[in-house]
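A favour between colleagues. Tell me how you read the following sequence-structure pair.

===
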Amino acid sequence: MRIAIDAMGGDYAPEQIVVGAIAAAKEYSDVEILLVGDEAQIKAHAPEGLPSNITIVHATEVIESEDEPVRAVRRKKDSSMVVAGRLVKDKQADAMLSAGNTGALMATGLLVVGRINGIERPALAPLLPSLDGVGMLALDLGANMDASAEQLQQYALMGSIYRQRVQGMKSPKVGLLNVGTEDMKGNEVSKAAHELLKNSNLNFIGNVESKHMLERPCDVLVCDGFSGNIMLKSYEGAASVIFNELKKAFKLNWLTKLAAAIMLPKLKGLKKTLDPNEFGGAPLLGINGLVLKIHGSSDARAVQAAVKQAKTAVEGKLVESITTEINKE
C-alpha cells in the first residue's frame, strides 16, 4: 500500500508533516509513504535519515493558502499537492493527504484525480468531535455551497458507506441538519431531501438540530456546504471562547487556582475529546481515489492519525464500495 503525503501544505509544513510521516512509517511497516515536496527541505527535517518505507517524490512548487484554488491547480502543475494527486490518478498511490489549501485540494480531487462515475458532487466529510469520543461524520462541510435533494441523498449514502467500511459501524444512523426536528421543517430542498431519505434503505432517523451536535444525535450528519460550514465555524468559535474564559476564571484568586488544580485532569480530557487533531483527516468522498484533507494547523500527531485513517479506508475498499453502490442500478 502506498500513501502520498503533500509535505509542503499546512501551517507547520514541512517540519510537522515530515515528523508525522516518519512516526507513521515506523508504526506501519507495511505502508510505503511517498513524501511529495522539495527534497532538500524534507531531508533537512529528518537529520537521522528517513525510514526505508519512505520515498521522496520531488516537487518544485507549492500551492499557497492565498492562491486561487482552480488557477493554482491548473498553473502549478509541479506543486506538491498536484503531483500527489497525479500519483493517485495514475494508481502509483492508493491515497493522498494534505494540510494545504482546502479549495485547491478539492480542485485537485476534481480536476486531477476525477469523480466517481454517477456522483454529481463530491463532499468534504470531517469527523466532528462528540462528548462520547466516537465523533459524528458530517458532509458536506465546504466542498459545495449548494446542494439538491438528490445530492444530499448521495452524501448520506457515501457517509454511511464510510462509517461502515472505515469505522466498522453496522447500521449508521443518518440525520438531516435542519432548523427543527419535525418532518416538514426547513426549506424546499430540506423537505425534498427528507422525503428521499425517508424512502431510502438507509437508517434515516429524521431531522436533527445543530444544538445537539456534541451529543452525537446521529452517526452521519447530512447538510449542504454553506449550512455545514457555518455550523462548524460556530462550534469552533464557541469552544475556543469557553476554554479561554475558563482559563481567566481559574486565575482570579487562590481559591479558583485550587479549583483549577482539581479540575485540570478532567478539563484536559475534555479538550482532548474535542481536539480535531485526534480525528485525523476529512475524506473528500465521491472522488475516484482516496483524498484526505487534514487541518491546516495539523501537527505530527494529526498526520500520523491521518495515515492510519487512510490505511483503514484503503483496506476497507472505501472508493470501490461507493462506486459499486452508486452504479448498481
The two ends are 31 Å apart (CA to CA). The first helix runs from residue 15 to 27. The chain has a mean pLDDT of 90. Residues 121-279 form a domain with the Isopropylmalate Dehydrogenase fold (CATH 3.40.718.10).
